[in-house]
Write a structure and sequence with these properties.
Helix content is about 85%, strand content about 0%. About 20% of the residues have low confidence. With about 120 residues, it is an all-alpha fold. Helix 2 crosses helix 3, helix 3 packs across helix 6 and helix 4 packs across helix 6. It is globular. It has two domains: about 30 residues; about 90 residues, no CATH class.
């Protein structure tokens, strides 16, 4: 076997592997319709309830879903909600490194969505 033939087979195998990874990642990021709807409704309230806003907000959740796995999204949404609770319980969500990390992931994805969609 020649060197070029070996490289060609390696590239082919890598392409098959990458397509499998992409397909798996898309399945991992498959947000339920209710979560997508809730995000779009909140986005519409913040950006005006126009036809253009519907398109932009729908685009936004698609970008977020492509960047943040659903379980990480749920964690970040929980952190946002619970960090508003007063006292020790809310404080744990405001000061936890894991909570901050999940929230930062969501905020980065939303910033990317803002650039792509608005």
């Amino acid at each position: 076997m020649t060197f070029a033939g070996s490289i060609g087979r390696s590239v082919g195998a890598l392409a098959v592997l990458m397509s499998a990874v992409v397909m798996t990642r898309a399945d991992d990021n498959d947000y339920p319709t209710s979560a997508r709807s809730e995000y779009v409704f909140g986005c519409l309230k913040a950006n005006g309830e126009t036809r253009q806003a519907i398109e932009q907000c729908s685009c936004s959740i698609d970008v977020v879903a492509s960047l943040v796995p659903y379980d990480r999204y749920v964690t970040a949404e929980t952190v946002l909600s619970m960090s508003q609770v007063r006292g020790n319980l809310g404080g744990q969500f405001r000061t936890s490194e894991q909570a901050a990390s999940a929230l930062n992931d969501l905020r980065r994805a939303q910033a990317e969505a803002e650039v792509r969609c608005f």
